[in-house]
Amino acid sequence: MYFALxxxxxxxxxxxxxxxxxxxxxxxxxxxxxFKELENFDDNEFDEQAVFDALNAxxxxxxxxxxxxxSAAEKFIEELAFRASKIKLKYFGNNINLFTPxxxxxxxxxxCVYCGFQKGNKIARAKLDENExxxxxxxxxxxxxxxxxxxxxxxREFASVEYISKACQIAREYFNVIGVEVYPMNEDEYxxxxxxxxxxxxxxxxxxxxxxxxxxxxxxxxxHFAYRFNGQERALRAGMRGVGFGALxxxxxxRKDALATALHxxxxxxxxxYAEIALSVPRLRPILNNTTIHPRDVNEKxxxxxxxxxxLFLPYASITISSRERMGFRDEAIKLGANKMSAGVSVGIGExxxxxxxxxxxxxxxxxxxxEILLMLENSNLQAVMxxxxxxx
Length: 393
Fold this sequence. Notes:
By secondary structure, the chain is α/β, with parallel strands linked by helices. The chain has 14 helices and 13 strands. It has helices at about 30-40, 50-55, 60-70, 75-90, 130-140, 160-170, 185-195, 210-215, 225-230, 230-235, 255-270, 300-315, 325-335, 370-380; strands at about 5, 15-20, 95-105, 110, 145-150, 175-180, 200-205, 215-220, 240-245, 275-280, 320, 340, 385. It has an eight-stranded parallel beta barrel, surrounded by six helices. A two-stranded antiparallel sheet has the order 1-2. The chain has a two-stranded antiparallel ribbon with strand order 4-8. The longest helix is centred in the C-terminal third of the chain and has 18 residues, at about 255-270. The protein is globular, with a radius of gyration of 20 Å. The two termini are about 40 Å apart.
């Protein structure tokens, strides 16, 4: 067995959590670096002058990032959004990348209190077979989309590495860019996915507060914080083109979770400078059989603050605005900092071709079709980008 380390306030390590027998241990100092900066973040430390300095900085350091995520920066949201929009235009122009998610399976072995897929929740469970994967992907490809993100519940016994690898292989028949958002894997398993066509891996840490993490991830593989944290690094070591990060804002202190997300991405890109880095800003959404789940303290203004702080701190990173958010907010977010959005979204199993087999993970707010998103982009003088690469087999 291996153990992950957590830093205390004195910078000393203590045992945090053991790894399961099949989990690959990765010697990496990125977690310690992130925790050290979290320990040094005090929201009451920042004033208006600190915000002015951060907004006018040519290159943002960690202190500037903390400042822009602080309560003091809230009253400067218009200036923050203006600066972010300029940077977004500089590096991405009027381009907005489009993609859609495809849920392969909603079976799950983990008990996560905020998730509709959680073990024990009474929902219709389903898993697509190979013919159904073809059918779903064919329906999506007919909309003109060329990028797909495939998702499953947590638990390799329900959706094996080989099953997901086969789905990647099938996806290559229909799409130019292929991503997965599945349970964390070992390096050799990510390598198998990459060999079969996968370009990038997204992992949401959900919250970087490991004490809160333990309280809301009650059982299953997802309860292992450290193994999940190092998932993106294992994916890059396996040859993946890019990796995505995100905290589910509203689970805990969203300012600290946003800070940790940005630092996690920053430190990893320092270590792997060739990697394409992507960030998402998802908020909690109601789930089936539990409508009381809502993002704590994260209103749209604060969500925009996080998004714009990300853009200023990581100007080259791709930033996605989720269909969890209402259409009006998404339409503004892609002008102010985000450069990527989903379209034609379905969170049910088998729902793209009209014959839903299984229930979804959460409720979405923006259910516009691909054509409706394209019309919105055209009316906003924005250019839809279906694929940012050409696959050469």
